[in-house]
Structures are given as structure tokens and as C-alpha cells.
UniProtKB/TrEMBL annotation:
EC number: 2.7.1.24
Protein name as catalogued: Dephospho-CoA kinase
InterPro entries: Depp_CoAkinase, P-loop_NTPase
Enzyme class: transferase
GO molecular function, one term: dephospho-CoA kinase activity
Top-level lineage group: Bacteria
């Protein structure tokens, strides 16, 4: 039987990486949308050639890798350019994710994506788990992890879907405001429940 797909998402600093890691330890096949997004623009991939053709060689580093900061600066300043890039990359990323999910051997498989809701990737899933935490706690965690300022974290928060928007799509919510042991036991509880589901629904 084909594994069903669980979408795993959460705002910055919610702890979704820790949750994802524990699902992997439990033997669940997991695909990371961020990895897929990086892979489709690797040297030798057709998307990178198209990006260079469109934006010019200044979006490349000396070693031929994509200069993400230079590209980001170009597309954030210009909505038309951002749309062009999304139109090119979103279908390729989706294809990469779909191919990878198809290789899963666990009863269910996880697509982890910070932009699950915003990118439309939630359409690939049968069920959504949102890792949630109070905003102040998420800001503190991100500042510690990335050695960054509160202003920078707030800017990222604004670019992501609002907490309400994410929660509206959620089938399950894991509130991560306690310690790691508690988090792991919650993941195990959800895993046990997910193993009983057919196609992601009770």
C-alpha cells in the first residue's frame, strides 16, 4: 500500500527540526522541502542555467554555485522577478519532492516544509501537523540559535504565514513549550496514532 503523506510545518523557532529528527529516529521516511529547493539549483541542474541566463553571471559565485544572497537581493527588490523565479522553481521543487516521497518504504512519510501552506505544497499531503509555540519563545530560540537580533527574527516572522493561517490548515497541533523529553514523548504518541491511519484519516 502506498504510504500516505504527512505535512510537517511550523514557524521559525517552533522546533520543527527537533520534531522531524525524532520522527526519523522512529524510522519514518522524511523529505525536506528546503533540501529539494537547494538541490534543484545545484550546478549542472537545468534550473541554474536558466537563472543565470535570466539574471546574468553576477548571481553565481566563483565556484559556479548559486550566490543565494545576490539572487535574494534581486528578487526581494522586484515582485516581477520574484514571480519569474517562483514560476521556474516551484514545479521543479514539487517534482523533486514527489519523486523522493514515492521512494518511501514507511507506512506514512513526512514532507517537512517551513512554507508548506504558503507554497501550496500542502496540496501534496493528506494530513498536516503544525509545531507551534508562543511567539516570544520562538523569537528567543531563533535569536539564540542564529545569533541574530529581534528585528531580524521579526522580519522573518512577517514573511511567513501567520500562526492563525498555519493553525487553520492543521489536523494536529504539537505545542512545543516544554522540554525535549516531553517533545519526544509527544512525537512517539503521534507516531503510534499515525500508524493506525489509512490515507492519513481515521
Amino acid at each position: 500500500m502506498k504510504p500516505w503523506i504527512l505535512g510537517l510545518t511550523g514557524g521559525i523557532g517552533s522546533g520543527k527540526s527537533a520534531v522531524a529528527q525524532h520522527f526519523i529516529e522512529l524510522g519514518v521516511h522524511l523529505v525536506d522541502a528546503d533540501h529539494a529547493a537547494r538541490w534543484v539549483v545545484e550546478p549542472g541542474q537545468p534550473a541554474l542555467a536558466k537563472i543565470v541566463e535570466h539574471f546574468g553571471a553576477e548571481v553565481l559565485q566563483a565556484d559556479g554555485q548559486l550566490n543565494r544572497a545576490a539572487l535574494r537581493a534581486r528578487v526581494f527588490a522586484d515582485t516581477t522577478e520574484r514571480r519569474w523565479l517562483e514560476t521556474l522553481l516551484h514545479p521543479l521543487i514539487r517534482q523533486e519532492i514527489t519523486d523522493y516521497l514515492a521512494r518511501a518504504e514507511s507506512p506514512y512519510t513526512i514532507l517537512v516544509s517551513p512554507l508548506l501552506v504558503e507554497s501550496g505544497q500542502h496540496e501534496l499531503t493528506q494530513r498536516i501537523l503544525v509545531v507551534d509555540a508562543p511567539e516570544q519563545l520562538r523569537v528567543q530560540r531563533t535569536m539564540q540559535r542564529d545569533q541574530t537580533t529581534e528585528e531580524q527574527v521579526q522580519a522573518i516572522l512577517k514573511a511567513q504565514a501567520t500562526r492563525e493561517e498555519r493553525l487553520r490548515h492543521a489536523d494536529d497541533v504539537l505545542t512545543n513549550d516544554r522540554d525535549l523529553n516531553w517533545l519526544r514523548s509527544e512525537v512517539e504518541r503521534l507516531h503510534t496514532f499515525y500508524l493506525t491511519l489509512r490515507g492519513g484519516q481515521p
